[in-house]
Amino acid sequence: MTLDDRPRPTEAELIILRVLWDHGPLSVRAVLRILNLEKPFGYTNILKTMQVMTDKGLLLRDESCRPQIYRTRDSRDQTQSQLLRHMVERAFGGSTRAMVLHALSDQKSSDADLAEIEALLDKLEGAKK
Predict the structure, then answer these.
(1) Engineering a disulfide at 67: which of 3, 27, 37, 112 sits with its beta carbon 3.0 to 4.6 angstroms away?
(2) Whole-number Å distance between alpha carbons of 25 and 71
(3) DSSP for 58-114?
(4) 53: Cβ–Cβ under 8 A, 6 or more apart, which residues?
């Protein structure tokens, strides 16, 4: 199964993925502790969500220890790339150009962001030559 064939995470699943990407492999209770710093969540809800994520192939569970430890199957970059490809296909008809132009025109970009974008475009243009 390729990365694009895997199920895409829901918003709730992305919240848990971010915790695991930022903090590394954790138990359900450790994920809950971190999430509760921002907003209260119930243990059972987080446990069930992480079990579903494991079934979907988003998380891997180490059952050799107690408590069980969960880790992400894919890196943050891999997941973001999968989600971005899906969004470009669905929302912009596969046009990366349309997506970039919309993103740049939709909100104000800082001078630093624009300089970074320009440097990336120069790099990509140089690689094509």
Answers:
(1) 27
(2) 4
(3) SEEEETTSSS-EEEESS-HHHHHHHHHHHHHHHHHTT-HHHHHHHHHHHSPPPHHHH
(4) 9, 13, 16, 17, 59, 70
Among all chains, which residue has been given the structure tokens 């690689």?
127
Q: Which residues contact 44 (CB under 8 A, 6 or more apart)?
A: none
pLDDT of 95 reads 87
Q: Are 92 and 18 in contact (CB under 8 A)?
A: no
The pLDDT of residue 129 is 64
CB 53 within 8 A of CB 9: yes
Statement: the pTM of the whole predicted model exceeds 0.85: no
